[in-house]
């Protein structure tokens, strides 16, 4: 819980889900916090895009399966518009279930800053909103390793590819990874193991500002738009092997 005296700004959140009860429940959880406020609710991706223009939220909680326009298409349009305008908001936090695992990588590649299970504990939901707002990316700490590994493996099976050897990065990423400095490669590894900017700063004995610069360089050199995309690349390229990554939730 954030004390009222510690609140320096309101984090404005838009909730997009086709089930009204879920929208209302999420809004109640968020509005209970002194630094969070729900500025709008949308029942589908198309409505979410309209409301983003109107309310300019900092974070969007985005369901995947919705009518009219699903969360994947909406996320891609949101992040593309942000990139074209040179802005880094709103951050998109995807709400998912294990039944949606085939969609998770698509959501990440569309630019989502992270994803959470819909039955996530309220405290973790609140921490997640704060985390993506400050530039960290994350996935549900209870399911990250299993879900990411299953998604990557599922994609490889569908694509007919054999998993890359543990010691050799996927050829698709070898060139881009070669552009990283030793420190940037170290940053990538620790990001994939779940460390936030704050964790990285403490571990490497540098400031958070320095960490953010390194993270930005990693994303730029790899042509990515979010930290969570970098985590997926680390898995796919063999930089971090399945079973090695440990998520460290930064509340």
Automatic annotation (TrEMBL):
Short name of one Pfam family: GerE
CDD domains: LuxR_C_like, REC_NarL-like
SUPFAM superfamilies: C-terminal effector domain of the bipartite response regulators (SSF46894), CheY-like (SSF52172)
Keywords: DNA-binding, Phosphoprotein, Transcription, Transcription regulation
Protein's GO biological process: phosphorelay signal transduction system; regulation of DNA-templated transcription
Response regulatory domain span: 12-133
Gene3D superfamilies per the UniProt record, alphabetical: 3.40.50.2300
UniProt-recorded Gene Ontology molecular function terms: DNA binding
InterPro entries in alphabetical order: CheY-like_superfamily, NreC/VraR/RcsB-like_REC, Sig_transdc_resp-reg_C-effctor, Sig_transdc_resp-reg_receiver, Tscrpt_reg_LuxR_C, WalR-like
PROSITE patterns in the cross-refs: HTH_LUXR_2, RESPONSE_REGULATORY
Domain HTH luxR-type: 173-238
Positions carrying 4-aspartylphosphate: 63
PANTHER family reported in the protein's UniProt record: TRANSCRIPTIONAL REGULATORY PROTEIN NARL-RELATED (PTHR43214:SF24), TWO-COMPONENT RESPONSE REGULATOR (PTHR43214)
Name this polypeptide is given: LuxR family two component transcriptional regulator
Originating species: Kribbella voronezhensis
Lineage: Bacteria, Bacillati, Actinomycetota, Actinomycetes, Propionibacteriales
């Amino acid at each position: 819980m954030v004390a009222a005296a510690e609140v320096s700004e309101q984090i404005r959140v838009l909730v997009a889900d086709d089930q009204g009860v879920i929208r209302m429940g999420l809004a109640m959880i968020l509005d209970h916090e002194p630094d969070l406020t729900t500025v709008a609710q949308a029942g589908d991706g198309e409505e979410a895009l309209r409301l983003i223009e109107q309310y300019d939220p900092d974070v969007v909680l985005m369901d995947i399966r919705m009518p009219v326009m699903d969360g994947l298409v909406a996320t891609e349009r949101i992040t593309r518009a942000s990139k074209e305008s040179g802005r880094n908001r709103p951050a998109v936090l995807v709400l998912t279930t294990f039944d949606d695992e085939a969609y998770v990588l698509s959501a990440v590649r569309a630019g989502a800053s992270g994803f959470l299970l819909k039955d996530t504990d309220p405290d973790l939901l609140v921490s997640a909103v704060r985390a993506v707002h400050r530039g960290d990316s994350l996935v549900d700490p209870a399911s990250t390793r299993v879900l990411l590994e299953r998604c990557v493996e599922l994609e490889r099976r569908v694509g007919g590819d054999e998993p890359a050897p543990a010691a050799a990065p996927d050829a698709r990423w070898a060139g881009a990874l070669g552009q990283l400095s030793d420190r940037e490669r170290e940053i990538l590894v620790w990001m994939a193991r779940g460390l936030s900017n704050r964790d990285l700063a403490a571990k490497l004995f540098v400031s958070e500002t320095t960490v953010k610069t390194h993270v930005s360089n990693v994303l730029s050199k790899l042509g990515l738009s979010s930290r969570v995309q970098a985590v997926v690349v680390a898995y796919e390229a063999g930089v971090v092997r399945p079973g090695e990554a440990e998520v460290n939730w930064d509340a």
